[in-house]
Amino acid sequence: MKGLKRSALLIVDLQNDFLSEKGAYARGQTTSALAQALPQRILPVAQAIKAQGGLVCASLFTLWPNALGEPMISEHLLQKRPFLRKGDFAPNSWGQGVVDVLAPVVDVSVCKVAYSAFFNTQLDWVLKKAGIERLVVCGIVTNGGVASSVRDAHVRDYDTTVLSDGCAAFGQTAHEAALSDMSSVANVLSCQEFLNAHLV
Q1: CATH homologous superfamily of 7-197
Q2: What is the spatial distance between Cα 176 and Cα 174, in angstroms, rounded to a whole number?
């Protein structure tokens, strides 16, 4: 592999509470088989970037507890996901954590409370401090956290790539529309295309 030293992989929200059969979304019968297939597909990209001294970052959607330990959930989210309860996506919990397949390759994690991995997090500071110029984005959902993070990366002058089959949404139409939209501000490649582009 070559040309990845100043690159970082951003894994958006591939967490146990979203993907695991024991997680919050499975309890609410809102899991996605397409999303559950992502970690294994993304792993070789993460390993390739790390092998050349690049960085692997993860954003962790987080429900911070109030003084009584109850999660502070935005009203619009609670309306869509009424099954969310105390302990779900809690800081430092199993559910908040990155799925097992990817956890060992993650160098930096940031907690987030909204769609973008940049909003009110230290992600930009970490990337700049590490000398990162190119950001490769994957995760869930394509038209939510991924799209928001990609646009925020673009306005921060990162050379951004979206992994087309490293993302998933709750519908193929929404997924494809989001990829098409992001192509105006980012490169769109499959995981294998990305790897092939960096083969010696």
Answers
A1: Isochorismatase-like (3.40.50.850)
A2: 6
| Encoded tokens for 119 | 């909003």
User: 58 is written with which tokens?
Assistant: 């993860």
**Token code pair at residue 98:** 């990155």
Only one residue has tokens 């970690």, namely: 39
CA pair distance 182, 161, nearest whole angstrom: 9
Question: pLDDT by residue (tens digit) across 71-92?
Answer: 999 898 899 999 999 999 999 9
Domain ranges of the chain: 7-197
Q: What tens digit of pLDDT does each residue of 33-62 get? A: 999 999 999 999 999 999 999 999 999 999
Q: Is 154 helix (H, G, I), strand (E, B) or coil?
A: helix
Q: Which alpha helices (H) appear in the chain, and where do they start and end?
A: 16-19, 24-27, 33-36, 38-51, 75-80, 123-129, 147-155, 172-182, 191-197
Would you say how long the chain is, in residues?
200
Six-digit token string for 79: 């309306």
Q: Which of 169, 170, 164 is nearest to 191 (CA)?
A: 164
Distance CA 186, CA 49 (A): 18
* Alpha-carbon separation of residue 64 from 8, 84, 138, 170 (angstroms): 27, 13, 24, 25
